[in-house]
């Protein structure tokens, strides 16, 4: 059924790195939801695999000694959604990965695989970008920390070297504390579909809950890699969260959404035209920012 030359079982993260050095032609397999399909389709027929399946230390979510949220790359989408730490601090990440495929895929697919395949449509990627995730790589020279903006190099390519593995995804405390977010995936179907565009926002208000202290806004499929929208973020910073009627400040929301258009570069594909995606960039920004403000305590 699957044309696989060799399968090597890593006994530890360090052993996985050793195997990748010994077998430079080998590919990593974690959940297998991408790799096995490519083998079956012939793109990777006859390949060798380094399996991470035995590495339970790469599963789960915990707070580290700095109170950063540490997400193991082998954690399945289903476990991300159900995890109490995710539900408490960044429930939007669980909501984002819950839009991926169907239940079977979410049970086997891993968040590490989702970000390491390098595709811009990965549903976890824009939320991780908006929450300023840091990738922890392990390689022959030890550990290196890579901000998610530097993790993505080009379409389908990351800065992860062949003889490195992703050991953890870190969300620093300053990136999640008192932040509230929302993710919207626009697709042609409500399930089992790839995003036409994804948009993730999070907002932190001032202590008196009247001012937008900071906005983080990120997109998938708005360019070759998942990307932040710094112009939109700057447009909202320091603005009143409240409008004249006491509800959401729609002027600030609209200004940020409009500014996002200068940050993105979507393309025309068989899924949607560039022009339609630009409409989505602005509209989804309005909706995600507005909902993030509501979650922060601002009455709509």
The oligomeric state is single chain
Count, helices: 13
Order of helices and strands: EHEHEEEHHHHHHEEHEEEHEEEEHHH
What would the average pLDDT be, to the nearest integer? Answer: 96
Give the strand order of the largest sheet, numbering strands 1, 2, ... along the chain.
4-5-10-6-7
Helix content: 25-40%
Summing up helix and strand content along with how strands pair, one would put the structural category as alpha+beta
What does this structure look like?
- With 300 residues, this protein is of the alpha+beta class.
- 34% of the residues lie in helices and 24% in strands.
- It has helices at residues 13-22, 35-40, 77-82, 84-89, 91-97, 103-108, 111-116, 125-130, 148-151, 173-176, 230-236, 250-260, 274-295, and strands at residues 4-9, 27-29, 47-51, 61-63, 69-71, 134-139, 142-147, 152-154, 157-158, 165-171, 180-186, 197-205, 212-220, 227-228.
- The strands form four sheets. It has a five-stranded antiparallel sheet with strand order 4-5-10-6-7. It has a four-stranded antiparallel sheet with strand order 11-12-13-14.
- β6 and β7 form a beta hairpin.
- α11 (230-236) runs antiparallel to α12 (250-260) and α12 packs antiparallel against α13.
- The longest helix is centred in the C-terminal third of the chain and has 22 residues, at 274-295.
- The chain is globular and about 65 Å long.
- 47% of the residues are buried.
- The model has no long low-confidence stretch (mean pLDDT 96).
Short structural description:
The protein is built from 13 helices and 14 strands. The chain has 300 residues and is an alpha+beta fold.
